[in-house]
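The data are passed on as follows:
___
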Amino acid sequence: MPRIPYAEKGTEAEEATAVYAQVEVEFGFVPNLLKVLGHSGPATQAMGAMLDNLFHHLSLTPRIREMAYLTVAKFNQCAYCVGHHSFFGKQAGMTDEEIALLGESGLTSSGFSEGEKAVIRFALETTKNIAASDDTHTELQKAFPLNQVVEIAYVVATANFIQRIGKNFGIELEQ
């Protein structure tokens, strides 16, 4: 049960209504994360912009985006984000086995490329320690152009940001 009630559609802050409508068109429902934020119009608007950027404006492939996001979600034990992003990962071509390996075990898996392992390592180190090691930065920059290195950092930071909200408020996966 969430720590605060969801702002169901029709009860959200006035400034949140447009975000609810946009997300509902795209996903077919208003996610519980937005329903918690829906009590604050500015917070909902900021999250809507962040999600739009995450899903529509990065140059990363959806596979790399979801590897980074899911690695963070699994480390943070955020069932809400693992649930949603496992779906997105599968849409991006990831297998159940690959999703299961994201985390420490993915670093030694022959199923991931060196660049993908660098993404996993970066996501883990950044989530655990705030900053990744020099070696991890070097490996990431060998595998990706600088704009994508920055975008990987953006995805990892976004995942950690969203998960701090979700875990603090006990947001539940939609039925």
